[in-house]
Model the fold of this input.
Amino acid sequence: MERKDMSIYQKRLDALRSELRKQSLDAFVIPLTDEHMSEYVGDYAKRLAFISGFTGSAGNAVVTLSAAAIFVDGRYTIQVANEVDGTLFERHHFEARPLLQWLRETVKEGGQVGYDPELATLPWVEEATDKLAHKNIALVAVSQNPVDAIWHDQPSAPQAKAYPHPDIYSGQSAEEKRSDLGQLIKQAGADSAVVTMLDSVAWAFNMRGDDVRNTPVTQSFAILNKDETADLFISSEKVDDTLRSHLGNRVRIRDRADFYPALRELGEANKSVLFDPKTNNSAVHQSLCESGATILKGDDPCILMKARKNRTEQMGARSAHIRDGAAIAEFLCWFAEEAPKETLDELKAAQKLWEFRQKRDLITGISFDTISAAGPNGALCHYSVTERTNRPIRLGELFLIDSGGQYLDGTTDITRTLAVGHPSREMKKNFTRVLKGHIALATTRFPIGTPGMALDAIARRPLWDAGLDYDHGTGHGVGSFLAVHEGPQRIAKFGTSVPLEAGMILSNEPGYYKEGSYGIRIENLVLIVASDNVGERPMLEFENLTWAPIDLALVDPLIMTRLEIDWLNDYHRLVWEKISPEVDGKTRQWLEAATKPITRPH
Done:
């Protein structure tokens, strides 16, 4: 992979170190997030990319006066090596070498480590304060972010208009939601709740926007009150008469800059405030604490209500996935014809898929930057194709495409791995192991109250049996015309202990990645529903939402069980029944062949 010019990062580090000296800091922590604790952030908040060149969606860096380090998880170990100059930054897996351990070992005793309180949660601040205190190192909240001070062409915060999300898609009016939320706030013993996650605010007010690439949210904060009123803090440029009418007279629209003063007003009025330490930044806590508010720690009241999709949202998700499946079928048909000619590359494939999606009703955009990865680029779990990294799609390789659409009635996310020409025996074996894990999870029933982390090993077992694994979670939550990564539901080794519930949407996406060679991932979205299985305990199961062929050229029936083959054949039968009415001509003929039953050789 061609490497970008790294000299600019040396200059930026030099400038940052000069700024640290001005602020009497020995080090500064640079996370990849914004003041809403977002995973995907606007260009103005991409401080980690500005200082290091790393463009992944998860990571942290530390810069001292003489050293620097960046910390990522297993999804990004290859990408960080490609994007970040190892002579400027030490590169670490965050589990093998934790950031706070590195700080404690690197910063001198009695030193001062700066952090931006709007970019850190309270638990992180408390943990960092405690661990650094062992070496008499002070953690200092800065009033001006040093990166912003040297980022002279830093983009402005986005000012796109916010707009209503109609009840016909949300399934519940914003007024009804605020009534339910008011009851939750009362039950917590609070007068108000602070909500800062962008998708929570968007959900609570049935409001969407275009402030974050591929995620239909608008930059805003909210204070929800037990009397069912609310304060929405949003730039005036984003609000028009349509939105004002939609919000109604029980929502006070205030300027975004008034948010922290309003928190202090709550304290001065001796209010009890529900505060989520996991999602609110530490500056929120500081404002409430200093002004005398009674702080009640608890979950963002929107988070579970948002995760449990109502009947309208469930029906919307099913419908959106049919339309999305038709677009995927057209793409797969096109790819099967064009890829063997060796005239395609990653960018052309991603663009063509978007062209097919654009023809679908209710489409507004993609749900994340398409991962279009040929050959060894597929081994980068969250690879992002650019003009610089764009790779031809060649015979004898695997092509991995992970993509999704934002539809007014639902958010989609699907990954398919495709053989270009004849796959090797190793490719087929490993693909089939991933498929076996996918099927194992898809067919799992589990008792009510089970957390996602209890299911993770089910999908990994076929890979573990072969001494293989993957360094990402098996399943993430998905919103309804909202964030493609949604909490608290998750299926992962080290996931949340929050129980999975009926109505939640998750991905099922085991994978395998061979560095320098290829990547494999099979991803469908699933909806948790009540099981009709009769037994001693009430059970839940997964209803499949995604309908698109799985590449039979990569399937090795010899290492599949009869039940696994039956599942695959039944899945493809349903793909044909649901998608064939949505396509015609060449695509329909291709789809019929792509969904034919397979048998296990005797």
The first helix runs from residue 7 to 22. The chain has a mean pLDDT of 96.
